[in-house]
Specification:
The chain has a domain of 58 residues: DNA polymerase, domain 1, CATH 1.10.150. It has four helices and no strands. The chain is globular and about 35 Å long.
Amino acid sequence: MSALPIEPAAPANEPRDTRLRRLRMRSMRRGIKEMDLILQDFAQRRLADMSDADLALYDRLLSENDHDLYAWVAGRARLRANRIFTDEGEPQWR
């Protein structure tokens, strides 16, 4: 029996414009309305200017639980370092 991946993998060799559209859609179709609004606004303003590495990090961020993300965005909690971020710390685009 094969195990399902924990987070969906981005299609191999996905064109940048396709990736941007996919990330924008994932940003506005969340589990809670607050995160829909926050991430949709962020995606509209910032995704086009992000590097491929930052887009990959953002893609992973979207796999996190909405309640955990909201607590992080609201400044009430930190995301666990082993989940998204490395020793390099938080991304500059927060």
